[in-house]
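Per reviewer request, we include the raw input and output of the structure prediction for the construct analysed in the revised manuscript.
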Amino acid sequence: MVGTFHGHAHNQRCQLDWHPMYIPGTGHTEGEGCEHIFSTSNELACSTRHVNHFHRHQAIEEHFAFWDADKYAALSNYLWNHYLDALKSVQLLTAELETIKAKLHLSNNNFLGFFDQECVYLDSLKQPAPQDQLSIHYVVQAHIRVDLSYAKLQHAKVLVAHCDSLLSVDERWAIGGKEYNHFKEEATLGKYHATLDELEHLVVMRLFKLSKLSLSGTGLSVLVSA
């Protein structure tokens, strides 16, 4: 079984086999029990990053000992509340399902048939027939690329003519000429600055992510000299 949080990163065919929603008996289980534990144990990283082996082991041991005691104390209420929620869900969803079945004239066997049909359909998409593959390759290589290249060429000609008009250029700038080299360098600098902005954005997003996971203080100090 793949947890619901990670399951939707898999393709639909994989989900039909391994997503909790399609596995009998899983109920409302999301399959992400480890994530619940990691969400609290990640906070240990800041305090244990630079301690010795004994104190790191001691901190982790005490954390999970308290975790076990805390969860055990709340276990009765946890089971009772989830039992009541399960009863409500069964009652509500059963009523909704019966309404849908009556409206669409379906039976329980129809749902199993729909599931099998979806599996067969998705399996058929894995590999097209050889003749279809050749036809697709022919269309992509011989027609679509040629049409796109011609369209790009026509668009470039129109754009260059428009720029000539706006800049009052009587004679096209030659490659390697003074004006050409100057503005080529400007364009390169513009791309360089855009890349730096994107890099800064990614670094900030990474720091936010580490802060959310309580891992922002675990890295080694880095001294950056001007």
